[in-house]
Amino acid sequence: MRKAVVAVLSVQVALTLAFLLTLRSGRFPLGIPGEWEWLRLPHGVAPMALQWAIGVSGVLGYALFAGWGMRVLGTTPHRWNEVMAVLGLVVASLVTQVLVAIAAPEGYGLAKWILALHNPGSNGYYTVAKKQMGDLAPFLADYPNWIQRQDALHVGTHPPGLFLLQRGLLNAMEAQPAVARFVVEHLPQSVSSACLVVEQYAHLTRADRATLALTGALTMLLCSLTVVPLYLLARSSLPANAAWAAATLWPLVPSAILFQPAADTAFPFLSTTALAFAAYSSRANKPRASLIAAAGSGVVLAVGMGFTLAFLPIGLIVAILIGIGIGPGRSLRQKGGAIVVVGLGFLIPTLLGWAVTRSNPFLTWWWNQRNHARFYVEYPRSYLAWIIANPLELAVAIGLPAAVWVLVGIGRLRQAPRVSLATFALLAVLTLGGRSLSEVARLWLPMMPALLVAAGAGLTRLGGGAASLGITVGGIGIQTLILQATIQVVYPT
Asked: What is the pLDDT of the chain when averaged over all its residues?
């Protein structure tokens, strides 16, 4: 192993140990006191020994799998090997996230599928779908007016997509009682127990239970599937081993697990897919292939904007990627044409949605951003304090071992992946502009996979191999296990 790699791994280990020891000591705040702090778990709440064993075994097994894949792929593998490796990564990603969730203290793992999603203080979308969306057509038509009367928190800052998803699942479970019964009868024990807890203060029908559980399962599935577009995004500019390194870091990223089952953990699948389309559009040899990929990126952005305004900065990164594309023979006119096609890919489904639902998306987005602006009026933030806190929280959110490789990957600007540079610069602008102060561990989830592309590039550029990747993945996993045994980030404060 090269000296430079050993030095980086040593820094990773030192930073991770120092952070975890300080975290467990409880001697420093998890945010800015008086403004925003992540909560610590109640005293005495901890996973059982068997849960720890399951979680640690899952992390170690996944680390070995990551290292094995790194060795098998090499730099120029056969295309079929890449396909099979990524398919295996999908399965390993989902299994690992489930095992790590099992290792959480009671009530803070898979039980959150019920406890958090049912609680209007931590979610709210299911509550609105259940109580206010009896007739969809009038609700959607009036949505721009309804949303302006909502809070400056999660409900008031979102388009109707999440409410529609919840109502659609609930309608399906009510219309198909046999399916709902099958789902409820095959729930993990912790999820079934959480249903009994909620039953103590609110009645849950079988359809309610199935809807909440399916929402949590779908969220985790989409989060796990993010490894596919992440690999493709990285592979558009990096060799196979670097793309593999980037993709394998995602499943154990602390934010990707701790914030389950919040919808924020599913959004990276869409955001990374949009960026992957844009990356291929910027490098495609054939104009037609470039335009098809650009259109795909626009469509995915349209879908994403139906759920959250977090896709606005993703759209900007898409435009930057295409604008600075280095595909052979790509003129400024071709780049401009591809960006126009992205816009059309976004606009056409958006207008079709407007026509079908009679809900003006542009007016909705206007009120969403107005509500978001109210947040900093109702909950003031200290600008300078959060300028310092944001990058620290981001580093912890993606895993300190991964953050070190990200810095290595973007350290040499000319060799850094463009998507990572663009994302890093955008996050800096959001912070310095005061548009994103606090909670970046959750709010910046859609941008985190793009940063991991730099981690894969940095690891392979220094000559890191299977052992380096395995150590890094294991370090992230241990950090995640201890974080979820120490703090809570989904339940309302």
From this structure: 91
Residue 135: which region, alpha, beta or left (left: phi > 0; alpha: psi -120 to 50)? beta
DSSP secondary structure letter of residue 438: S
Query: CA angle, 397 as apex, 113 and 300 as ends, to 5°?
Result: 70
**Rounded Cα gap, residues 135 and 137, in angstroms:** 6
Residue 125: HSE in the Cβ half-sphere, 13 Å Cα cutoff? 29
Q: How far is CA 123 from the centre of its chain?
A: 16
In this predicted model, what pLDDT tens digit does every residue of 380-426 receive, in sequence order? 899 999 999 999 999 999 999 999 999 999 988 788 899 999 999 99
d(CA 382, CA 370): 20
- Report pLDDT digits (tens) over 64-83: 999 999 998 876 778 888 99
Bridge partner list, 32: 36
3-state secondary structure 148-210: CCCCCCCCCCCCCHHHHHHHHHHHHHHHCHHHHHHHHHCCCHHHHHHHHHHHCCCCCCHHHHH
